[in-house]
Each structure stands twice: as structure tokens, then as C-alpha cells.
Specification:
By secondary structure, this protein is of the alpha+beta class. The protein is built from 1 helix and 4 strands; from the N terminus they run ββββα. A hairpin with a 3-residue loop joins strand 2 and strand 3.
Length: about 80
């Protein structure tokens, strides 16, 4: 699902888009109707164009000391 959902579109088999509320660099927010709970909700749909930091080498786990942290940061910023 990309941002720019259409009015009346059903998302995830449950939420019907009513109107757009706001747009941002990484997501759009819509007023939607929850068909299961029968109530209005806000629905945030993230852009498919935004990569998660773990997908682009921006995460390094289990660093054991300051030198390892410094080295990982230098590699990520290079």
C-alpha cells in the first residue's frame, strides 16, 4: 500500500478511507472507518519509498566497547 490511498478504498480488509487528513515526508494520514469496530479511526500509511535503517546498513548490534561504536559509526557515515 502506498500513500495516496483513494476515498472509499478498503485497506487491510478492514479500514475504509474517508479522506486525507495530512501529508508528510514519510507517510500520509487518513480519516478512515473501521468496518469491524464500526467507528472512525486515523490511519497512517507509510511511504514505500522510505528504507528502514536496518535495510541500508544503519544498524550494528552487540557493540562491546567505545572503540567498536566509533568504528561502526565511521563505517556508517563514510
Amino acid at each position: 500500500m502506498s500513500p495516496n490511498a483513494n476515498t472509499g478504498e478498503i485497506v487491510d480488509g478492514r479500514y475504509q478511507i474517508v479522506r486525507i487528513i495530512g501529508r508528510g515526508a514519510m507517510a500520509d494520514v487518513y480519516e478512515a472507518h473501521d468496518l469491524k469496530a464500526q467507528r472512525p479511526v486515523a490511519l497512517k500509511i507509510l511511504s514505500d519509498d522510505i528504507s528502514h535503517k536496518s535495510d541500508v546498513g544503519g544498524v550494528d548490534l552487540f557493540l562491546s566497547n567505545a572503540d567498536a561504536v566509533r568504528s561502526a559509526a565511521e563505517d556508517m557515515l563514510a
